[in-house]
Design brief:
23 strands; 22 helices; five-stranded antiparallel sheet; five-stranded mixed sheet; elongated; about 15% strand; 4 domains; single chain; alpha+beta; OB fold (Dihydrolipoamide Acetyltransferase, E2P); Penicillin binding protein transpeptidase fold
């Protein structure tokens, strides 16, 4: 009887237990999230690409680069399986043997009261479920949900797809989510370029990234990595020889990880433009207009030439005792860090740290200052310094005090092809291309001359007297007596020659004949004014207004593109992580776009074409031809050695505080600015020609080394007639005729009506 009652109670308890379990599972079933992971895509960081879809920068709290299963190196897959789930391709989402083993081990640890970590038995599938569908709650309910969902997912999806999501979702430390990001952040390498021991180290991290940081506990990190290698050997992923070789490798992590993708002037500006267009920097693919080749050349040209400039005015500041102090300068990749190895009387041996190459410098040892010194007097063996390669020759380099900017723009659509906002973003994130509002000096003059031609007050060959001008500036202000840069007057000079030689007095006369109000109106139309205070001021005729390099470079585009106003833009396209087109620069389809756009109806906002005709095609070409003359025989004649169509204009302010050069080519417009952040005189008699122009020259020489389209030239519009004239007098077809001038048909008719053909040109 007692036995019967015992059986009865046991049966009732069993039924009760089953009932409770059914109710428990039913409630869990009701609360389970959808197990459909086919459309799941891990949240990625925002990625900024150049014009050719090469990565420039990534931003966000989670670094992630999605990589498909077939692209993941097999060694990475093997290392993860060996470390995390050896039977992944055999089980159905759970591992019974693993569960039993974990239970026994944990029970032993509890019984023995050891401090050993508890062993888990979660498969890769279960970990994926926890990461993307559930949370990290340590509860029975969550574990049961995890098991149910894992079984469902295993029945619905391939092992390869599950593993692909896992390898792109799992956290590796250092803000890295996914194996591709981890490779970049830990080794500063592509996931495809790692060695077996590096794959093993990454596979060791998901269990506890902070626990296996070599800087905190090198031996613990090494032991864990070698455990993974041993598991790879035991599972026949690698042979014994590879295991022994790679287990003896050191763990060497990159201290300058993701240097390539650090924030800089151009990417900072891109993020600003996103914000201004009400686009949050969150999980987007951004195709910029940046051409990385032009960007590199612009950066190097600015650095090299400012370094050479400082040779005149700045002494050598010395080498560095430790690596960290020199790395703070951060001029790489344009400069190389070198270690002083051996010093002799007339030469020094240096080791390049990036590749171990030995460099011997036998001259130009002391780049800075005029006094030559023996190497032993200013270098110490074991110290570190910067080297830079200029024209296939190494120079000593150091921190640069003077600063500047370079902007390369497509004149036909306003696309910014390169933006250099200074010499060192980490030292100062002040963007001198967009934020430095300085006086453009003489670089403003072409716009006055363009307005004069548009208003039909002057002709290209008009003779104008170069003489003193006296201007009243207002009550209680002194009479302004402007002068030419040379302090000389040159008598009669043609309209063309006056601009080619950047004559101040003739420019003033042209501006006064136009009327200051008319000049101000034109400056306003072309966006040369930053504020209303600058308007209607006589000194503005000689560049006493303030604007930045970006706006002035944009304004110069009118002389190349036929007189059309363009708006600067640096973003071509923004695509969400779901493939939706969020932002489009133009109306044209993205024929070469690498992004898969799934929803064509999702288009907001679009950049409208803002091309407004500012000056006529004929006027724009006439000014362009004069600016080409400035290169042939004027202020830019040091560029004559470059065999390429170039027009250009220098700019120099009072006391040489701000120096400029604007170079125009059929493909792009290049603006260069040089000055100190706290304005001061740059140097004795320094001009845009001596400081800014060489930067452009270096840029063009480097660009033309690989440019295959050298036969290109500027477009000549209709209604332009060529005439030989005397460069000094402007007279037609004389024995002294030496240059070709470009006239419109209307201009020649005006000259004929005035009966001045073969005498002088002009109507003034």
């Amino acid at each position: 009887m007692k036995l019967f009652k015992l059986i009865k109670y046991i049966f009732l308890l069993f039924v009760l237990g089953i009932s409770i379990m059914i109710i428990f599972l039913w409630n869990i079933q009701e609360d389970l999230p959808n197990a459909n992971i086919s459309e799941y895509f891990p949240n990625e960081i925002t990625k900024i690409y150049d014009n050719n879809y090469d990565l420039l920068y990534h931003v966000g709290t989670r670094d992630r680069f999605y990589i498909e299963y077939n692209d993941i190196p097999v060694e990475m897959i093997q290392a993860i399986l060996a470390a995390e789930d050896k039977t992944f391709f055999q089980h159905q989402g759970y591992d019974i043997k693993g569960i039993i083993n974990a239970f026994l081990v944990n029970l032993k640890n509890i019984y023995s009261k050891t401090n050993s970590n508890y062993v888990g038995a979660s498969t890769i599938t279960q970990q994926l479920v926890k990461n993307i569908l559930l949370n990290n709650d340590q509860t029975i309910t969550r574990k049961v949900k995890e098991l149910i969902l894992s079984i469902r997912i295993e029945n619905e999806y391939t092992k390869e797809f599950i593993l692909e999501l896992y390898l792109n979702e799992i956290y590796f430390g250092r803000r890295s989510y996914g194996v591709a990001s981890a490779a970049n952040n830990y080794f500063n390498k592509s996931i495809f370029d790692l060695d077996i021991h590096e794959y093993a180290y990454l596979a060791a991290l998901p269990k506890g990234p902070n626990n296996y940081d070599p800087k905190k506990n090198y031996q613990k990190a090494l032991d864990r990595r070698n455990y993974v290698l041993n598991q790879m050997f035991l599972n026949e992923f690698i042979d014994k020889e590879k295991y022994e070789i790679h287990s003896n490798k050191d763990i060497i992590l990159s201290d300058r990880n993701n240097k390539k993708y650090d924030l800089d002037y151009k990417t900072d500006y891109i993020l600003q433009q996103l914000s201004q267009n009400s686009i949050s920097a969150n999980a987007y693919y951004i195709q910029s207009t940046i051409d990385q080749n032009l960007q590199f050349l612009a950066e190097k040209s600015l650095l090299d030439n400012l370094l050479l400039f400082e040779k005149k005015y700045k002494n050598w500041s010395g080498s560095y005792k430790d690596l960290s102090s020199i790395q703070e300068l951060d001029y790489s990749p344009h400069w190389s860090i070198a270690k002083v190895q051996k010093i002799f009387n007339n030469r020094v041996e240096l080791e390049l740290l990036n590749n171990g190459e030995t460099i011997v410098i036998t001259d130009d040892l002391n780049l800075f200052g005029s006094k030559k010194q023996k190497p032993s007097s200013f270098l110490v063996s074991g110290d570190y310094l910067y080297l830079t390669l200029i024209d296939d020759k190494y120079f000593l380099a150091q921190d640069i005090d003077i600063n500047g900017s370079v902007l390369v723009m497509d004149p036909y659509n306003g696309n910014i092809l390169a933006m250099v906002g200074g010499t060192n973003y980490k030292k100062s994130n002040f963007n001198r291309a967009t934020q430095a509002f300085r006086q453009p000096g003489s670089s403003i003059k072409p716009f006055i001359y363009a307005s004069a031609l548009e208003n039909k007050l002057f002709l290209p060959n008009t003779l104008i007297l170069d003489s003193s001008v006296l201007l009243e500036q207002g009550p209680n202000l002194p009479i302004w007596v402007p002068k030419n840069y040379s302090d000389k007057s040159y008598g009669e000079m043609t309209f063309r020659r006056a601009l080619e030689n950047s004559n101040n007095l003739i420019t003033l006369k042209i501006g006064l004949d136009l009327g200051i109000n008319k000049v101000s109106k034109f400056f306003e139309e072309i966006n040369l004014y930053e504020n209303d205070v600058q308007k209607d001021v006589y000194s503005s005729l000689l560049g006493a207004i303030e604007n930045n390099l970006l706006n002035i470079t944009k304004s110069y585009s009118v002389f190349v593109n036929g007189g059309y106003q363009v708006e600067p833009n640096i973003i071509k396209k923004v695509v969400s992580d779901k493939g939706n087109l969020v932002f489009n620069q133009d109306y044209f389809s993205c024929n070469y776009c690498n992004f898969q756009i799934t929803d064509r109806s999702y288009r907001k906002p679009q950049i409208q074409s803002k091309q407004d005709n500012i000056i006529s095609q004929q006027t724009s070409y006439q000014i362009l031809s004069i600016l080409r003359g400035a290169i042939e025989r004027g202020t830019g004649k040091s560029l004559n050695s470059i065999q390429y169509p170039i027009a250009g204009k220098t700019g120099t302010t009072n006391d040489s505080k701000d120096l400029w050069f604007f170079g125009l080519t059929p493909k792009f417009v290049v603006g260069v600015y040089v000055g100190y952040d706290n304005p001061k005189k740059i140097g004795y008699r320094e001009t845009g020609s001596s400081v800014a122009l060489p930067i452009f020259k270096s840029f063009m020489e480097a660009y033309l080394q690989n440019d295959t389209d050298k036969d290109i030239d500027f477009f000549i519009p209709d209604n332009i007639i060529l005439k030989k004239i005397d460069a000094n007098t402007g007279a037609f077809e004389t024995k002294n005729s030496s240059i070709i001038e470009y006239f419109t048909k209307d201009q020649l008719e005006t000259i004929n009506n005035l009966n001045k053909v073969n005498i002088i040109g002009g109507i003034n």
